[in-house]
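Data deposition worksheet. Section B asks for the primary sequence of the deposited chain exactly as it was used as input, without tags or linkers unless they were present during the calculation. Section C holds the resulting structure in token form. Section D is free text for depositor observations; keep each observation to a single sentence. Incomplete worksheets are returned to the depositor.
Section A, Depositor: J.P.
Section B:
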Amino acid sequence: MEDIEIKHILEIAKLAGEEILKIYNDQSLFNVVDFKADDSPLTLADQKSHEVIARNIDDLYPHIPMLSEEGKDIPYDIRKYWNEFWLIDPLDGTKEFIKRNGEFTVNIALIEEGYPVLGVIYAPVLDTYYYAIKDEGSYKINGGQKSHLKITHKKKDQLTAVRSRSHASPEEEEIYKKYNVTEFTSVGSSLKFCMVAEGEADIYYRHGPTMEWDTGAGQAIVESAGFEMINMETEERFAYNKQSLLNPGFLVR
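Section C:
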């Protein structure tokens, strides 16, 4: 990771966000929605954002392979030899994009030896960045103001959980009861990780389904802010570049 400059990744996320907003604000383009094999929506914005990120990252770091939601058909027999790779979600929260609530993001993570060491989440409508670099901390940039994100400790009977706007599961109630959660908030996309990192929530549980590109950047940000992200199947630290890119359930606490 020695040759990676975070300012370049922030700039690329911004460029991708600009492409997304062009479509978001153009009624004739915004309504063009296709569907993937799993029935998840795909917009022109997903595709344009992917093209911008792939082109710019490849120009700067051609030696580092990339795994993106819109370019994911790379066999495990190739991926298993990757010690380092970019993990990209060009438009996280496509359902929120379609709902026009502004709660969607651009996610860029760098994975080394199975774990995220850099993460950038950019919210185009909010023009807000969240980012983290291993051993350097997590940060938020909004309106030109940069703030350091760090865990805050609360009493156990005052915990807040952040929930998904578009996904929910009955398993959540068990987790919330175990951790004495008394308050709840909801937001779309990877902004849930950001809410935890900046202290707006204390716990984020997700039973499923998510893919690796949904969580890589968010994990980098919450872990650098002092939280842990646990694989609920193994109770170990959440890891990447599995044979199946489908994530197990996880808990950020």
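Section D:
Residues 149 and 198 are 5 Å apart (CA to CA).
The two ends are 27 Å apart (CA to CA).
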